[in-house]
Amino acid sequence: MAPEKKHPRVVNCCGYKQTLNKQKLCLCGCGCCCLLPAIVVAALWSSIFFYFLSWQFALSPYSITFNMWRETPLPMYMNVVLFNWTNPDQSLHGPEKPAFTEMGPYVFSEHHSKRNIVWNDNSTITFLNRNEWHFMPNMSSGSLSDIVTNLNTVAMILGSRCHNLGNLTESVDNIFKKEGSLIVSKSVEDLIFNGYSDALLQNADLRKYLPDFPDYDRFGWYYQRNMSSTFDGVITMYTGQKDIERLGLLTSWNYETSTGCYPGDCGQVKSTIGNVLPLSTFKQPQFTLFNTDICGVYTLDYEKLVELNNIPGVQYRATESMFSNNETCYCPRQTCPASGVRDISACKRAPLFVSLPHFLHADPSYLEAISGLEPNASKHSFFMSLANLTSVPLVVRVRLQTNLLMEPIPNMTMLS
Fold first, then answer.
1. Residue 134 burial by CB count (10 A; 0-12/13-18/19+): exposed, middle or buried?
2. Distance between CA 185 and CA 150 in Å, rounded?
3. Which of 1, 135, 282, 319 has CA 20 to 30 A from 141's CA?
């Protein structure tokens, strides 16, 4: 019997039939073929991930970000705190310090939506911001019928226009003495949204005498603002379609690149209003936000890493530098006030200054002049937390205080 011939064992390797003595070579070749795409994918993964992230976060009619940007998807609330002047008769002209007690908070649900959206050819978008507020009595500490006593803002606004009136000074002074009052007691509802009428606003002679007379018939801190699409002005910003690191950056406000309120860099329309941010913002040591209410920006500084609902992020906080007045172009009166407040009178056409609540981080002179305010970082800090990778805001606590400047006006009896 002839000896049996041994044939090489045939195996399937890489989709082809191969002999066993070529198996190792085949496996090695297949392994290299598989390894090469893996190396390429691994090397490109960050670029691929960033591309899809950019594609989804850039504003376009089809991106997931657009719908959330156009209509606020999550509940937001505005807490309003008012200060009641408890000793006006004893402190208006001395000898006591003005004393204040905090009333509220009065809580309002807040909803933002974008209107009149226009997609521009240069990867920008122009829109109006509509704000809507509704009182939440179950979340509030007080009712809208609560009475608050404070300075008459109307008298202070009109009084600030009484400098250098020349021959008209005596006539204007007589109108103020007859119809004006420095102290008012009004309901919370009137002070915030409804507004209150004042005899000085209705005086036809005063309207003729004073320059830049206000164009409103009532005064309230948010009068005519609820449900308005025009109060915040016309905003134009980058969509991020061509460059995701420009997402949300402003190009103009009311079609101007300067606010006209401050000189130099302080008057530039820049940064973002904060609802969408460049993706790398979370990596920065600080970032700025533009606020139409102050016609300028404020800066938040890096504080710490955080985790919210298992989402890692970075927290930024307002520090002493926010209103330090180191940037003197924010001082339109040529001399800067003590640190801790910013003069926004040019923005609001009223003698107003903005600060953190209870003059947190401000010069001690502000608290020494009054009583009843107690700054507390845990209650009065302004901070934001941004998600890693996307810089989506996770927590926003915008806490600001509006202050009214009271100063003597020469030759004005009521204001001297």
1. exposed
2. 7
3. 319
Q: Which of 89, 86, 219, 151 is nearest to 404 (CA)?
A: 151
The total number of residues written for the chain in this structure: 416
Band of residue 349 on the pLDDT scale cut at 50, 70, 90: very high
The predicted-structure confidence for 198-249, as pLDDT tens digits, reads as follows: 999 999 999 999 988 988 899 999 999 999 999 999 999 999 999 999 999 9
Interval 14-22 mean pLDDT: 48
Q: Which residues contact 123 (CB under 8 A, 6 or more apart)?
A: 238, 239, 240, 241, 242, 243, 246
68-101 per-position pLDDT tens digit: 899 988 899 999 999 999 999 999 888 899 999 9
* Contact call for residues 133 and 226 (beta carbons, < 8 A): yes
Judge contact between 78 and 133, C-beta under 8 A. yes
Q: What does residue 59 show for φ and ψ, rounded to 5 degrees?
A: -75, 125
Query: For residue 130, what pLDDT is reported?
Result: 96
